[in-house]
Amino acid sequence: MNIKIHSYDNQMTEDDLTSDPKEVRVSPRFPQRSSEEMEQEVSSETSKKMKMLTNKVLCKTVAVQIERSPIPTKESEDFKGCLNMEFEYPMMPEWRLIQDRKMKALIDAKWGRDCSGNDKMLKVNAKWQKSEEQRRQERCQEQQHISDVDSSGQDSNEELVTTCGDLKTHKKWSHFKECLKYRRNGRMYSPTCRLAVEDRSLLRQLDIDIMHLNLPSWMEELSTSLKRYIYFTFFDRLSIDDIDVRNEENKVRVQVVTSKGQDVMNVSIHTPDEDAQISHIPIEQPKIKVDFSKILKMDVPLKLDWPLGFPLRFPSTKKSLKQQYLEVIFGSNQPAFCKIRPNDRIQTFDGVQYKYKVGMCDHVLAKDSSPEESFLVLVRKEDVEQPDKTFQVFLDGKKIELTTTQKSQSEEWTNKEEQVHVFIDGRQVEVNPLKARQILKDEHDTNSPVLFSLSRFGDKVILMSQQHGLIVETDGHYVQVKVPSAYRGKLSGLCGNFDGEQDSEYEGPSQELYRSPSDFGLSYRIPSKDCQVNDKKGLSVMRNARITRLNEFNKKETCFSKVPIPQCPEGYTKTESEPRELEFHCVPTELESTKRLIEVHKTNPLEKMASKRTDRIAEVEAELECQQL
Q: Facing residues of 363 across strands?
């Protein structure tokens, strides 16, 4: 027996794909709106390159060929079988409100004397797309938005209410409308927008075309038994039309459409001699049911009713196909990622998104805060007004710098200047696009284990350390840091603590909890003279505010804020500030321990102050910008 397996990927754009005549169409009354029309702020913020990436489709093909000699006494000819599987799905997860993407799958099996398809053949075409009702509802939302902007169209408003109903009572309409408002104000990934994009990314219709020829008798019997079982199970929801039906021979068409909440589905089945409709089938969590009395053929009251760990659901274009599979298989144990986008928006490991402008100072992006201290990732900007960022990764004493900045004017780059350059301990290393470069833990020992590898894919450089489970991917404008679930609750930095709780996301280096994303970001800034704008202007530092008071016994007390705030260092005065309402913990001033706290407070935030009791609440000034005295 000979078995050959081939697998290859091909990248295409949605424009290259052939149009499908069976694609769901929407009435011309509701024309498709473009992103530029509905989301002008998206297209202005997004580069052409990002648009091209979002439009790309990955076509994955797996081909299997089997050849064997005939089975004695049963076969007289050689057997040959060919199985071809193709999958088409978007390369990039969807983030636009105006979208119309699809996923496709093809399974083509031919076997018998040869693989021509003239002997035995089974071909299954599947496509996930938006349903007609889903598209109609989206067009209604878009028309409603245009109508609200142009309030003069009274006649169109009345026609819209007649056709679409009162959308203002629908929660989905509220999400869409609020998201457009947020995006006009620059908040691309607000929680409301995530809900709106999630709703518009669902593909609620599945179309399956099954073509067959000369199937073995056991396959025909199996398909007949399966159809009878389905009809019997849902007989109270079933309607069949078998009068004068002349559908295509050797072909079965199945369509499944889910409801808005994906809790109910409608199924239509078209065979050559009948059309069947099964309505309002509840979608429940799949279960494995075993009756041991039937298996053992004994009267034992032992049954197994075991729910599987994932629900039945249709795919979405909001997340990559790989991420959806990981969620189904691993649940909360899947790897987590953190991103910094070119527009200074940060998404933490726990999915919280906020805006913070990283400056010329290094910031702790992600850090292993466990005793092992496996890795540290820093980020800074060489120019505050530009999207380019420099990233430093520290692994086992090695410093890896990923930057688009040219280190020396005399250096001659073989590639374009905007590419990411890699430096290890200050020495530039070349990363070949065609081959991963492995860096040993001890470069002087060829038997030393691999510490990390570097790969280049287009504009991106990927650093991967299997030893520490860390992946850092950047093109110089954005970065993605990916870690396994083993780091849950062990991290700190701008990417958050990865504890699974979004309410505690703004946790500072000393486990203090900030209310403001800007204060949270500043708590991970590493001030130095190298990142000051000039000699006269100074950088504020995170320190606990300190005030004094007399207690009820007329004794002097020193009170420290439980959370640090930006304050000017010694020798500088504030030039810009804003009020903060803070909780304070107070201790007797004459104690030696208090005097030590005062000295430490001058240079560093006070550790574990956040866990102390609250003795008073007061409003103080957060000193955002400083000037030398």
A: 379, 525
Got the DSSP string for 75-130? -SS-EEEEEEEEEEEESS----SS----EEEEEEEEEES-SSSSSEEEEEEEEEE-
Q: Tens digits of per-residue pLDDT, 462-474? A: 999 998 999 999 9
Q: Which residue has the tokens 């005065």?
A: 573
State the DSSP string of 545-571. -EEEEE-TTS-EEEEEESS-EEEPPTT
Residue 492 CB neighbours (<10 A): 22
Residue 573 in this model has a pLDDT that exceeds 80:
yes
Q: Nearest 5°: CA angle at 389, between 388 and 393? A: 155
Lowest mean pLDDT among 28-42, 86-100, 227-241, 400-414: 28-42
Report pLDDT for 47: 37
Q: How far is residue 203's CA from residue 218's CA, in Å, rounded to a whole number?
A: 34
The answer to whether residues 484 and 335 touch, using CB atoms and an 8 Å cutoff, is yes
Single-letter code of the amino acid located at 343: N
Nearest to 396 by CA among 476, 321, 450: 450
DSSP string, 193-235: HHHHHHHHHB--EEEEEEEEES--HHHHHHHHHHHHHHHHHTG
What residue type is 540 in one-letter code? Answer: S
* Single-letter amino acid, residue 615: D
Residue 620 and residue 547 in contact, taking contact as beta carbons nearer than 8 Å: yes
CA–CA separation, 584 vs 552, rounded Å? 16
Question: Three-state DSSP class for 298?
Answer: coil
Q: Which of 6-20, 161-175, 211-225 has the lowest mean pLDDT?
A: 161-175
Q: What angle do CA 457, 106, 3 make, to 5 degrees?
A: 80
> How far is residue 557 from each of residues 544, 570, 602, measured CA to CA in Å?
15, 23, 18
pLDDT of residue 342: 87
Backbone angles phi, psi at 145, to 5 degrees: -65, -45
- Work out the pLDDT band at 391, boundaries 50, 70, 90: very high
CA separation for the pair 423, 154 (Å, rounded):
63
Inter-CA distances, 600 with 334, 545, 620, Å: 41, 12, 20
Which amino acid, residue 138?
Answer: E
C-beta neighbour count of 129 within 10 angstroms: 21
Give residue 600's Cα distance to chain centre.
42
Do 606 and 587 form a contact (C-beta atoms < 8 A)?
no
C-alpha to C-alpha distance for 277 and 273, rounded to whole angstroms: 14
Question: In this structure, are residues 80 and 114 in contact, taking their beta carbons and an 8 Å threshold?
Answer: yes
Task: Sort 331 into a burial class: Cβ within 10 Å, 0-12 / 13-18 / 19+.
Answer: exposed
pLDDT, the chain, mean: 80
> Would you say 406 and 413 are in contact if contact means Cβ atoms under 8 Å apart?
yes
What amino acid occupies position 296?
Answer: L
Give me the helix-helix angle, 154-164 and 132-149, nearest 10°.
Answer: 160
Cα–Cα dist 354/338, whole Å? 12
